[in-house]
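lol forgot to send this yesterday, sorry. struct tokens for the thing we talked abt
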């Protein structure tokens, strides 16, 4: 981290000079401090689904600390959708996942339709993050079988957009089994939707894996896409920036 010129790297609100101290707090012994650091450090490079100059070194640091003992526990929170002691590790994986989806093949395809085939040539920050996917996957992979169910599920969803990289295509078989296990154990709507999308994209029949809630969510999603398309004059998507 000391070798990075953080002050020279762009973020949504300026440059990254505050990032080294904020990132270091992700390993603080106090769980509340770590929870605040997740917001301070990762929120500083998160805005409108965009990738910034500082995103790549932040992602590298997050990947490097995923297995650090300090990230194994979390802070207490009263949230019906979260475990009461959610590990910091799960929050870090969620950020990696969200960022990887912001730079996935679908967003590149949308960008190329709107901006031409040179989209990534003009969006070097996204290209740099996409090139990093094998490194990030190597950090996420050991957590796919983690003892903590929330960490395990977060790792699966983080791995899905990473294995779009051509060098990681062979890992999709292993990830398919993990994804099916997630569907058998998790009720998290976001994670289930991501898994279903991945399995379908990889050519798997998911009809026997859906429950009543999944079917309702799929129907609602289809209606919203159709409504958005009608509002946008037939286009159901927006540029990924």
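and heres what i got for the seq, position by position
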């Amino acid at each position: 981290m000391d070798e990075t010129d953080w002050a020279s790297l762009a973020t949504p609100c300026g440059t990254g000079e505050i990032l080294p101290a904020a990132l270091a707090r992700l390993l603080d012994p106090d769980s509340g401090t770590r929870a605040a650091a997740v917001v301070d450090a990762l929120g500083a490079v998160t805005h409108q689904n965009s990738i910034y100059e500082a995103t790549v070194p932040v992602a590298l640091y997050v990947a490097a600390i995923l297995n650090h003992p300090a990230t194994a526990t979390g802070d207490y929170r009263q949230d019906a959708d979260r475990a009461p002691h959610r590990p910091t590790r799960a929050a870090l994986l969620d950020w990696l996942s969200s960022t990887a989806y912001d730079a996935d093949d679908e967003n590149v395809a949308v960008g190329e339709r709107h901006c031409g085939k040179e989209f990534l040539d003009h969006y070097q920050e996204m290209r740099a993050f996409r090139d990093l996917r094998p490194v990030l996957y190597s950090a996420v992979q050991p957590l796919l079988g983690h003892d903590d169910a929330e960490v395990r599920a977060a790792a699966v969803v983080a791995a899905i957009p990473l294995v779009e990289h051509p060098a990681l295509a062979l890992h999709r078989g292993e990830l398919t089994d993990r994804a099916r296990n997630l569907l058998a154990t998790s009720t998290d709507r976001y994670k289930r939707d991501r898994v279903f999308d991945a399995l379908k994209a990889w050519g798997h029949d998911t009809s026997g894996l859906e429950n009543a809630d999944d079917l309702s969510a799929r129907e609602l999603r289809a209606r919203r896409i159709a409504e958005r398309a009608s509002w946008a004059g037939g286009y159901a998507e927006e540029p990924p920036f």
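Residues 123 and 132 are 15 Å apart (CA to CA). anyway ping me if u want another try
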